[in-house]
Amino acid sequence: MPRIPTIKRRADFLAAAASGHQCATKGLVLQMRAHDPADSGLRFGLTASKRTGNAVKRNRAKRRLRVLVQTVLSERAKPGHDYVLIARADTATRDFKALRGDLLYALRKIGALRS
User: Fold this and answer.
1) Per-residue confidence (pLDDT) for residue 1, from 0 to 100
2) Are 87 and 47 in contact (CB under 8 A)?
3) I need a labelling partner for 85 at 20 to 30 A (CA). Which of 3, 23, 37, 75 fits?
4) Mean pLDDT: which of 2-11, 14-23, 56-65, 67-76 is highest?
5) Are strands 81-87 and 28-34 parallel, antiparallel or unpaired?
6) pTM for the full predicted model
């Protein structure tokens, strides 16, 4: 499976937040923004604040979100967009099947689910 490029610049994270396309679920928050039409791929970024928990919980939450990106986002999300996944307090402990359902629901809700 090819590696999905990551968002690294703060300006890209802020642009995704300002785009208005976002959905919050119990396990995560998903933000989306369209990027340069010449670039047909998708990019992702992860965020886990201290509100998520201590360093161990934040790292576990980010690892779980990375797996979701590789399995769900790469197959089901529309290309040509940036996706930012924000961890919540329940991300590290939520059942993985429920977390996957949260991401699919969020993609459907913001209109980013590939048909």
Assistant:
1) 62
2) yes
3) 37
4) 56-65
5) antiparallel
6) 0.91
Handedness of CA 97, 30, 23, 111 (dihedral sign): negative
Q: What is the pLDDT of residue 97?
A: 96
What whole-number distance in Å separates Cα of residue 79 and Cα of residue 99?
Answer: 22
* Cα torsion angle, 111, 64, 3, 14, sign: positive
pLDDT per residue over 61-95, tens digit each?
999 999 999 999 888 998 889 999 999 999 999 99
Pick from 2, 7, 81, 70: which is nearest to 41 by CA? 81
Three-state DSSP string of the chain: CCCCCECCCHHHHHHHHHCCEEEECCCEEEEEEECCCCCCCCEEEEECCHHHCCHHHHHHHHHHHHHHHHHHHHHHECCCEEEEEEECCCCCCCCHHHHHHHHHHHHHHCCCECC
